Amino acid sequence: MASITGSAISISAPARKPVQAINGITSLRSVSFSSQGKSFPSIRSAPSRFRIYCSAANQETVDKVCAIVKKQLALPEGTAVTGNSKFSELGADSLDTVEIVMGLEEAFEITVDEGSAQDIATVQDAADLIEKLVGDKSA
Question: I need a surface site. Which of 13, 28, 45, 127 has the fewest CB within 10 A?
Fold first, then answer.
């Protein structure tokens, strides 16, 4: 069962009924978190590689990141790049990814620390991080 109330999301399932989800999660019993409070009050019986994806970035940011990725990787005209596009699937190696991050830093006037840069695998990851960093910068 999943429910969304305002900015809080709660996911739970009965103990004997596994929940099928992305990345092979098969025995999720209880997960809850609050995006506004930035707390993660309970994660019980969850696999060690559990990830929750919440798309926070607006479409304008995603589109701008797509354009920067296309330019940095010199992708042919007509190559589809979306929020779900993985840099590795677009042919990016580790050096390309560093150059993409540098291009994003310049375009959005932000600084991405090394730890956060290593967590970027998709266009959406980059766009979400940019929105967070721009928001932190404005605050």
Answer: 45
Residues 94, 74: Cα–Cα separation, whole Å: 15
Query: pLDDT tens for residues 75-102?
Result: 999 999 999 999 999 999 999 999 999 9
| pLDDT tens track for 26-44 | 444 545 544 444 555 554 5
H helix or E strand, kind and range, residue 70: helix 59-72
Whether 114 contacts 47, CB under 8 Å: no
Domain 59-138 CATH class label = mainly alpha
pTM here is 0.60
SS (H, E, C) 85-120: CECHHHCCCHHHHHHHHHHHHHHHCCCCCHHHHHCC
Kindly list the domain boundaries of the chain, sorted by start residue: 2-44, 59-138
β-partners of residue 12 are 30
Structure tokens that stand for 59 in this block: 């479409």
The answer to whether 13 and 19 are in contact (CB under 8 A) is: yes
